[in-house]
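Lab notebook page, bench 4
Experiment: in silico fold of construct C2
Operator: M.H.
Input chain length: 150 residues
Purpose: comparison with the prior construct
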Amino acid sequence: MSKELMSSIDIEAPAEKVWELLIDFTAYPTWNPFITRAEGPAEVGGRLTLRMQPVGGSAVTLRPTVVEVVEGHRLRWQGRVGVRGLFDADHLFILESDGATRSRLVQQEQFSGLLVPFLQRSLDRGTLPAFHAMNAALKDRAERATASRG
């Protein structure tokens, strides 16, 4: 069984600025309502420690591994709860440039494993809204940073 969540947002800021904010894990506690703490290197093979706060749910700390980094465009990590095949997650950020001053952020996650049927409702009600909240907060931060520079 698998389940995919996806959220995207258009941002009035250059992709380079959005990328810079996205991979600045140390600043996450100051602006990110979903990943309230992030530690570790944004490089392939890097092990992250992420404190995730779903909307209306309990926070959980996960330790995924970065599996893809395309500088300025893609950041992807994979993690699991318990043993492989129980509840696995493949999280991806895609950043697309839309000219010199606009960009689009896509955040998606593919869940698979035996627990997915039992967790679908909480993913829809807690995790997906948290994706939307993070995207909106990143948009606000990037647009404010861009406006203050101009």
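Observations: The domain at 2-149 is CATH 3.30.530.20 (Alpha-D-Glucose-1,6-Bisphosphate; Chain A, domain 4). The two ends are 48 Å apart (CA to CA).
Next step: discuss at group meeting.
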